Amino acid sequence: MFVRKLIAAFALIAYAATAAAGNDTDEFQRRWAVIAGMNLSCPTTASVERSPRDVGSTAAFASPQCNVLVEYYLPQQHFSVVGGYNAETVQWFDSKVDATMQNIVLGARYYPLSKRFALQPYAALMTYTNVAQRHEQHSMSAWNGDGGYGRNCTLRLPRVSIAPTVGVDCYIFSSLALEFQYGFTLAIDGKAHVTTTCNGSPDVYRMRSDMHRHNIQIGLKATFPFRFTSADGNNLFSLIEMALGIYDPADEKKQETKKERRRMKLGRVLDSY
Predict the structure, then answer these.
(1) What does the alpha-carbon distance between residue 63 and residue 12 come to, in Å, rounded to a whole number?
(2) What's the whole-model pTM score?
(3) To the nearest whole percent, how much of the chain has pLDDT over 90?
């Protein structure tokens, strides 16, 4: 039942988005937008020597960080420029080694589809300039019943990173969209070196990363001039009713197709004889 309602919810959102986007006219143009959300990053590793004690993930997605962007649509159709700020955390060894960058973001987007479509996929090229400190060094040790380990790390955070990116805006209403984005961020002059020793052994296990990373962003996008149409209002009420359990679009009677109507008419004619 839950899966059925979830599918129905997505279907209604898609219908609402299509109806909202379909109301766009040539006179209405999106001029600019504000995007607020969060991003997750997972660095790649160039080489890993896994020690007996390193049973966790060497690299994984870190805790989410915030990002705020402003987008300006260029007079040329399909293109826009994006700029703003995001914080980005990278981590290794289950967050035992991590660092956070404070990035100034600048990039350009290309939207291949007409603005009348509710789903707006895009391709982008983004740059991230880290304005926080670049060099960090940490040492740590831990002990338990089975022994212990020591770990030293040297991080050189990249000053500039470049990311080929793809994403999609899903318009729930005329001026409000959910945004999903993935980019592979290429670090320029970034390095991470981590060495681990176990139980006082002279053996040293090393991990090295060039700070290239996978990045996922999820956000809410509001476009301006902002507008909220009567169709948006109807769709909003439908979403509220569905959330309260008052309305379920899956229970609605499906609209008959022309082929079904012709078949029914033929059946009535045959029944009359």
Answers:
(1) 31
(2) 0.77
(3) 50
